[in-house]
Specification:
This protein is of the alpha+beta class and 228 residues long. It has 2 domains: 149 residues, Beta Polymerase, domain 2 (2-Layer Sandwich), CATH 3.30.460; 78 residues. The chain is 45% helix and 19% strand. The protein has 9 helices and 9 strands. Strands 1, 2, 3, 4, 5, 6 and 7 form a 7-stranded mixed β-sheet that branches. The longest helix is centred in the last third of the chain and has 18 residues. The radius of gyration is 17 Å and the shape is globular. The protein starts with a helix and ends with a helix.
Length: 228
Amino acid sequence: MERKNSLFFVTLHALHKTGVLKDIILVGSWCHYFYRQYFDNAPEIPAVRTLDIDFLVPNPPKIKKEVNIPEILTALGFSPLHNYTTGYVKYVHPELELEFLTPDLGKGKGSEPYRILQLHIQAQGLRFLNFLQDYVMKVTYKGITIQMPEPAAYVLHKFIIYKRRTKKEKRDKDLQAAKDIGKFLLQKDEQRKRLSEIFNDLPQKWQAKIKNNLKEDFPALYKFLQKD
């Protein structure tokens, strides 16, 4: 675990030096580490992390300058792994895998990746990610400023998408992490307010999907949103 953590932070530092962290958003379970720090090392927030680093490229992208990300990752020991059916590329290392995601908007691109020319990467388009790019916070850690979803948005987003996971083990981990973080947020007045505000900003169909999943798997948050 220590070596994996080290590579994660080395990767963040390399991206930070180029300025590209201003243009992309950290998503996925590595956010838990920074949520813990943000809330004064709260033990209630799970320290669960995976082998995957996921970065979200906003759609439409707002890239401030050209950065050759594959070149940076290659220098750190990552190798590009090509899916020749879709054209999508992710970056693999014996200790970690790194992927770029982006919201799939409108009619979508199906399995075709989004090409982010200024970063020299392909990003996988997924539904509902625009939810996360709309509610972003910044955390500074050891001189590095990272963008990530607000914790309230992170939790609500999980209750839209976790059932879309095809692997039961990952689905169960997503659900448990969302419940653990959600329970913690419900104890904080400001975070309760954000859960309510963000939920009420969402389209009615998304609200209905969240409520349906919460009623079954997280009744405390379901009741809170019902009362609001």
